[in-house]
Each structure stands twice: as C-alpha cells, then as structure tokens.
Amino acid sequence: MIPRDHPRYGSLVTREHLADCARSGIVSWEGLIAHGRGEAFDYLLGEKTSESAYHAAKTAAALLRTARLPVISVNGNTAALAAPQIAHLQKTSGALVEVNLFHRTPDRVRQIEDLLQSAGAEVFSGEAERLLPLAHDRGFCRRDGMYAADVVLVPLEDGDRCGVLVEMGKKVIAIDLNPLSRTANMATLTVVDEVTRALPVIADACSLLTDQECQHLIAALDNKVFLREALNKMKARLCDALD
Ligand code: ATP
To answer: What residue ranges define each of the domains in the chain, with the CATH number in brackets?
Structure first.
C-alpha cells in the first residue's frame, strides 16, 4: 500500500504498476532498469515538460501529419505506461501501431497487442519478418508496416535500431528522457520528455496544427538545438542546486 500523501506517490505507483507488468510478462526485467534510467533524467528535468520539449512534440506532430505512412513502434514499457495515450495518438495522427520488442516471444507480442487493443488502439499485427539489419529481435517487423514507413515514432528506443531506421531513409522521432543517449543523438527529432507527458502533446498538436504550421515546424527542425536545450535545462537545475 502506497500512502496517497507520499511525496513521490505518482512515481511509486508507476513503479509498482511496471513491476506488476514485469511479473505478467508485458515488461521485461531489463525494461525495469531502463525505466530507472529514465526516472533519473526526469529528476534532472524537474519532471515537467519544458518549453523546448513542447516545441519538439509539436514538430513531431508535424512529421506524423505530413507522413505518407507513419508508424508508432511500441515496446513493453511504452505499452505498460501509455497504452491509452498511444490509442489517442493513433486516432489523431492516423498512424499504424506496431509492436517491436527486444525480448520477443510470440506470447509477449500477443499480450502487448491485447493490452493496446483493450486501450482502444488498432494494432497492425500479423506475420513479422526479420527485415531490419539487426542481430537481435528488434530486427523483426512487418513488410507493409514499419519496413515501408517513411516516419517512425519510437518511444523508448535503443540506439542500434534507431540508427538502422535512419540509415534506411526513414524520419525517426524518438521520445527519450536522456539527451545523451545514442537514440537521442541519431534520431531525426528527439522529444526529451517523459513518454506519458509527451504523447498527449503530440496527439493534440496533430489535431490542431494547420498544414502551413506543419511546413514551418519541419523547415525549422534542428535536433541538435532540442538536445542542447534539454542539457542546458539540466545544467541550470544542477547549478541552482549547488548555489
Ligand atoms: P541508447 O542505446 O540510445 O544509448 P539505452 O541503452 O539507454 O540508449 P535503453 O536501455 O533501451 O537504451 O533505454 C531506453 C531509454 O529510454 C533510456 O535512455 C531512458 O532514459 C529512456 N526512458 C526510460 N523511461 C522513459 C520514459 N518513461 N519516458 C521517456 N524516456 C524514458
């Protein structure tokens, strides 16, 4: 039982939920460690969406809105943390939702697809093939889905697959609290924010942006600026704490 008045109530509830999801097989044990890394960076960001991350999220919406075939790639942590937000983003962006896992078993894929579906998402499922040049199981995807996509949103990605997707000529949007990660630095655009905060901002912007606003946001896209702004935010908070 987590007391409601605990100062870290939200964080503790999320941890308990992820631990439950690890016990049921939706989240991998390694996924719990990745969550801990994310929490550490979120602490440095003040656990709030910065103005810069808000702007990056709007730019992400512009990329999704103007895509020929946008795909949202979902792993265990993303499904456990944000299945309803993924369903909402799918509705406003029209993107396909496809499950992609590092620790892949048919049972895990089915469990995660069921979870997404019960949250209201339409999952693009079916036979996956090893189509991405990766030695691990994140190389599995669907020929008419992620393989054919021109824009892929990868919340909580690893650097290898992000790099491969970019090399294939796709625009890759990462959501990653760590602006130093390989993913954050390789992606076309990184939203340095917590996934449950970032997804609704992207979803709402998909509904609200005009075509002209999309063009302006895309023309101004410079991922290095977003990463530098996130690092400056962390630096400022560290300096304040030292004063
Ligand atoms: P890379 O290979 O890109 O250098 P990595 O080895 O850290 O990164 P993973 O272990 O897959 O890759 O970690 C996933 C990333 O997701 C981490 O950088 C972590 O900061 C981030 N992350 C974890 N939880 C969240 C969350 N809830 N919201 C946003 N980002 C998160």
So the answer is: 51-239 (3.40.50.12640)
Write out pLDDT tens, residues 85-127. Answer: 999 999 999 999 999 988 888 899 999 999 999 999 999 988 8
Pocket test for ligand 1, best of 17, 158, 173 (most atoms within 8 A of CB): 158
- Cβ contacts of 211 within 8 Å, gap of 6 or more: 66
Ligand 1 environment, Cβ below 6 A: 34-35, 37-38, 41, 81, 156, 158-159, 175-178, 181-183, 194-195
Given ligand 1 and candidates 14, 21, 153, 183, which is best to mutate, with the most ligand atoms within 8 Å of its CB? 183
Contacts for 10 with CB less than 8 Å, ≥ 6 apart: none
| 225 and 112 Cβ atoms separated by less than 8 Å | no
- Whose C-alpha lies nearest to ligand 1, atom 30? 176
pTM: 0.96
For 5-111, strand residue ranges (E) read 70-74, 96-99
Type of residue found at 182: R
3-state helix, strand, coil in the chain (%, to 5): 55, 10, 30
How would you class 31 by CB atoms within 10 Å of its CB: exposed for 0-12, middle for 13-18, buried for 19 or more?
buried
